[in-house]
Design a protein that fits this description.
mainly beta, Ubiquitin-like (UB roll), 16-stranded antiparallel β-sheet, 15% helix, disordered N terminus, POTRA, membrane, OM_assembly_BamA
Length: 818
């Protein structure tokens, strides 16, 4: 047999085989015919290998002595050897009964090095590339790694990063693989524009999406990093925005992101077709399932005739009806909305049709992509489990719950056929995101005991140890204040939807008329009663100390301080029948003038401290807010009571309530109106009656324009608190004209009214302000949703006040809605 040689290099698998030529003369023509032959191989000889054992190579080839080997068998053996990634060249030749395999082994990677990177650490880049130390070197793999590194830089907003790779021989057939990186500048988003929108302006639509045009705060907020998946997410946000505002025919025609290399910036253009705006027409429920009483289901409807069409309200109604019929024993009933558009009147009639669905069961729930979050944290958001009836509506509700956790970048749920025709596999794919936050904030508060510069640092983890638990540690520092807090919440206590947790705190304040030190904590548990109503009960413990290291400033019987040189020796005042004590001037000489403390009531309470308050409390919260962080529509109502007297020094019942209604006054200009009201009462439960520090102390927290503790009963000018309060306010907020909304600034106009009244010390010398006299103010505000937390500046002018009130027209500090 003639020798045949087969050569295959890494660049391409091209076989060169010798052929047996049979030439036959027929007239003047010659014909060459290639014939594949097979021959018996008696021995397989391996040459050129250094690290890989010859027996291992023979095993990869799958050719054994005594086997008839054809050219196709040799081709397959070459392919198998190349697929191992161990060889850069393989050649097979056959001489007689010997099959000779000549191999060139790939070089071994000694080190993988990165040069020029500072924005992405080596550890992160190592996780992105496939080339690894002690692995076989492959040029194809390193080229793929170059693209992976480019993608990593694109993900952090550096699309113009340049990456190259080279090797360095270090002997013994080993190489160092070196990736050279030029990180370049941040790739910005120069503009985001919309085409085809008329119902909403560009500035309003920019608030709907997450991507932002680059600005002065972009380096902190990091919301100007373009990525195609982020643009797709923003498209879905736009659809939901329009669908929930009556535009049922809305569609996105195109969304284009053009990169200008000269500016290293993207230009985003989204073209939309808004369509007509619809309202709900006739709304009905129809059932083909025997035993379902449709008349009893109308209370579950979120959609009402005449209201603006909203896809969210349709979805909420589907969930309500599905849960209701499932709880009634119809596990396989399916609720389907059927819409009937009236193009003339621009209405959509909705029929909720209840049919008997196919009998399908959940075989298993398969979770993929979670590297930190435990499986059970994801599974518990499902109202269905293995073996239950499959219901698509409840599965979609679980998807919404998982997204609301804010643990994941994306959540997708799909289904696959199970082992039996009536079995369904639910597949949950998640992409996790960072859930830990380090927050640093600062500002300046005005008015009252906490006046001065303030700073706060906190560490928050919303998915502690992947268990879905919330933990926060924070510390706050002011000119005269210190506070430390630890909070922990388990959202699924005992495997149920019970949010249990505790808070521990310590706070000191050395400003104002007296010093305070509070140490305490609480243990709480909250349970959802309905989708909007939540109940919470708690046990609270607090120890309070009051005093003044410098003694108490005193006045004469007319309330006049005699040259600011009269002080009481507090060590002598406590326990004395008349708390005047030994009086000294600033030089330590006796002062015999008839001097009195500012507030004997406060002085007596301070002398009796420390106080311990042991109480239980409960509260009910009703919320229909469309967004808890930045509400534009809905109610937030909260009421509760606290009962003190389980040991300790306090014995009281304290009742409070508050509520706020938000409404979007103008969609185009994003003007949000809100109305707030609140009230409270504290009464004794016996014992020695109310302590002065059990009272409410109010001021700018209910009527802006007054100091903290600026209104209500006083003795000799010192606040002693009140037993009742009531307040109301109206406010409108709006984006500032000529300022980009991306900066987070909003203006506000407001009016407040309220009062603090009632005291057990009414009739004592120097006590005034116990009547329910109304205070009112009006003003303007500037709100900034800064990267350090919400900040707010207010200017409020009190136009109804009492002579003894303490006003503070200008205030600046942290903003909080609730």
């Amino acid at each position: 047999m003639m020798a045949r040689t087969k050569i295959l290099r890494a660049a391409s698998a091209i076989a060169l085989s010798s052929t047996v030529l049979a030439a036959t003369t027929l007239g003047a023509q010659l014909s060459a015919v290639s014939v594949a032959q097979a021959a018996v191989v008696n021995r397989v000889e391996v040459r050129g290998n250094q690290r890989v054992e010859a027996e291992t190579i023979r095993g990869f080839m799958q050719i054994t002595p005594g086997q008839n080997v054809s050219e196709a068998d040799q081709d397959a053996a070459v392919r198998r050897l190349f697929s191992t990634g161990l060889f850069s060249d393989v050649r097979i030749s056959q001489s007689g009964g010997t099959l000779v395999v000549q191999v060139d082994e790939n070089q071994i990677v000694n080190q993988v090095l990165f040069q020029g990177n500072s924005k992405i650490k080596d550890e992160q880049l190592n996780a992105s590339v496939q080339t690894s130390p002690r692995g076989a070197y492959s040029s194809a793999t390193t080229e793929a790694d170059v693209q992976a590194i480019r993608d990593a830089y694109t993900a952090i907003g550096r699309s113009d990063a340049v990456v190259s790779v080279n090797t360095q021989t270090v002997g013994e057939n080993r190489v160092n693989v070196i990736f050279n990186i030029q990180e370049g500048d941040r790739t910005k988003i120069a503009s985001i524009s919309f085409v085809g929108n008329s119902a909403f302006s560009d500035s309003r639509l920019k608030q709907v999406i997450a991507l932002r045009e680059s600005g002065i705060l972009s380096f902190i907020q990091r919301n100007d990093i373009y990525a195609e998946d982020r643009l797709r997410t923003d498209e879905e946000s736009l659809r939901r925005f329009y669908y929930n505002r009556g535009f049922a025919d809305f569609r996105i025609v195109s969304s284009v992101a053009e990169l200008d290399p000269t500016q290293n910036a993207y230009f985003l253009t989204v073209t939309v077709d808004e369509g007509e705006r619809y309202t709900f027409g006739r709304v009905a429920i129809d059932s083909s399932v025997p035993g379902i009483d449709t008349d009893s289901l109308y209370s579950e409807l979120e959609t009402q005739p005449g209201e603006v069409y909203s896809a969210k309200e349709v979805e909420d109604t589907l969930v309500n009806l599905t849960n209701r019929v499932a709880n009634a024993g119809f596990a396989f009933a399916q609720v389907t909305p059927r819409g009937d558009r009236d193009f003339t009147n621009r209405t959509i009639a909705i029929d909720y049709v209840i049919d008997q669905g196919p009998r399908a069961y959940v075989e298993r729930i398969e979770i993929r992509g979670n590297t930190k979050t435990r499986d059970y944290v994801i599974r518990r958001e499902f109202d269905v489990s293995e073996g239950d009836a499959f219901n698509q509506v409840l599965v979609q509700r679980a998807k919404q719950r998982l997204e609301d956790l804010q643990f994941f970048e994306t959540v997708s749920i799909s289904t696959a056929p199970g082992a039996e025709p009536d079995r369904v596999i639910v597949i949950v794919d998640v992409v996790e995101k960072a859930t830990g936050e380090l927050s640093v904030g600062g500002g300046y508060t005005t008015g009252g005991e906490s006046e001065g510069p303030v700073a706060e640092i906190g560490v928050t983890e919303r998915n502690f140890l992947g268990r879905g638990q919330f933990i926060k540690v924070s510390a706050g520092f002011g000119q005269d204040t210190r506070n430390y807090t630890l909070s922990f919440t388990e959202p699924y206590f005992l495997g149920r939807r019970l949010a249990a947790g505790f808070d521990v705190y310590h706070a000191t304040n050395s400003s104002g008329d007296y010093d305070t030190e509070r140490t305490g904590g609480d243990v709480r548990i909250a349970a959802p009663i309905t989708e909007h109503l939540t109940a919470q009960v708690a046990y609270n413990f607090k120890q309070e100390k009051f005093g003044d290291d410098n003694g108490f400033l005193i006045t004469d019987q007319n309330g006049i301080t005699p040259g600011n040189d009269g002080y009481i020796d507090t060590s002598s005042t406590c326990g004395a029948p008349n708390p005047i004590g030994n009086q000294f001037d600033q030089n330590g000489n006796p002062a015999n003038a008839p001097l009195y403390t500012r507030s004997p009531i406060i002085n007596e309470a301070i002398c009796d401290s420390p106080y311990i308050t042991s109480s239980v409390s409960y509260s009910l919260t009703y919320s229909t807010l469309d967004n808890s962080r930045d509400p534009r529509d809905g109610f937030f109502l909260q009421a509760g009571q606290e009962f003190a007297g389980l040991g300790g020094d306090a014995n009281f019942i304290k009742t409070t309530g508050k509520g706020t209604y938000f409404h979007l006054l103008n969609e185009e200009y994003d003007v949000i109106g809100s109305v707030t009201g609140g009230a409270g009462n504290v009464s004794t439960l016996g014992g020695d009656g109310l302590r002065v520090f059990d009272n409410f102390f109010k001021g700018q927290d209910i009527v802006r324009g007054f100091e903290y503790k600026g209104i209500g009963p006083r003795q000799n000018g010192v606040a002693i608190g009140g037993t009742n309060f009531a307040n109301a306010s109206a406010e409108a907020t709006f984006p500032l004209p000529a300022i980009s909304r991306d900066l987070g600034f909003r203006g506000a106009i407001f009016a407040d009214a309220g009062s603090l009244w009632g005291s057990e010390f009414e009739g004592d010398p120097g006590v005034e302000g116990t009547d329910a006299e109304l205070r009112a103010s009006a003003g303007v505000g500037l709100i900034w949703a800064s990267p350090f937390g919400p900040l707010r500046v207010n200017y409020a002018h009190p136009f109804m006040k009492e002579d003894f009130d303490e006003t503070q027209e200008f205030s600046f500090g942290f903003s909080s809605r609730f």
